Amino acid sequence: MLKSLSFFISLILVFNKLTAQDIYVSGGMGLNNVTMESLNDYLRYNSGFNNRRDDAHTAIEFYSAVGSKISYNVLLEASFGYSLNSFSKSALLGTYQLEYVFYLPEFMFIYDIPYNYYGFQFGAGFGFYLGSVSETQYGTMLKVTEETKGWGFQLKSVFYAALSRNLSAEIIANYRNSFLNDLYIFEINTTPARPLNLSFNSLGIKLGVRYFL
Q1: How far apart are CA 200 and CA 120, in angstroms?
Q2: What is the CATH number of the domain that holds 193?
Q3: I want to staple 81 with a disulfide (CB 3.0 to 4.6 A). Which of 96, 104, 176, 199 is the partner?
Q4: Could you tell me the pLDDT band of residue 104, with boundaries at 50, 70 and 90?
Q5: What is the 3-state secondary structure (H, E, C) of the chain?
Q6: What is the pTM of this model?
Q7: pLDDT tens, residue by residue, 40-67
């Protein structure tokens, strides 16, 4: 994953040198409204959560990105997101807790509509997602962890406005859909039993800053 990101950043630097366009770096944080049907089933049948299959939950995400224009209106961007959430429930035997994290490296092509002091962007891209889930059962301190991986794609729109010559604020709205591997340790207590799968779709809103080099 790190080799892929390094290669992509090197590619952006080459494009920047050839086209004499600015590089930008950005970062920020936000919230995602996430739907994981399989996780909802797991929490309901295995741990007594009163949720429905199509219930959504909110996950926090931190992101960073680097990009460069490859033509007047087209940008090439590499981004990295870190998203996490946890679920807990107390009972006489103790506290149950399940938490997950995702690492979301993505590559995107973006169409830029710049104005004097602000602009709009619309983009699409894909990534190789890595995730893990950890569970602590009632009455025990033992934490069980398993990892998953797979592919996903993202659609996003951005509004940015200048704060100074090189610094801008940005607001991002995005949609993700992922296709991840089944987990082997975690099974949903249905008949027949089914493996837990952390594939998700989400709608997100994020706030950040962008610096032009």
Answers
A1: 27
A2: 2.40.160.20
A3: 104
A4: very high
A5: CHHHHHHHHHHHHHHHHHHCCCEEEEEEEEEEEEECHHHHHHHHHHHCCCCCCCCEEEEEEEEEEEEEECCCCEEEEEEEEEEEEEEEEEECCEEEEEEEEEEEEEEEEEEEEECCCEEEEEEEEEEEEEEEEEEECCCCCCEEEEEEEEEEEEEEEEEEEECCCCEEEEEEEEEEEEEECEEEEEEECCCCCEEEECCCEEEEEEEEEEEEC
A6: 0.86
A7: 999 999 988 887 777 899 999 999 999 9
Domain total of the chain: 1
Token readout for 71 is: 């033509």
131-166 pLDDT, tens digit each: 999 999 988 888 999 999 999 999 999 999 999 989
Two tokens, residue 124: 């699409």
Domain that holds residue 62: 2-212
Contact 138, 96 (CB under 8 A): yes
**CA nearest to 196, candidates 160, 144, 153, 119:** 144
Neighbours of 29 (CB within 10 A): 13
Calpha distance 213→210 (Å, rounded): 10
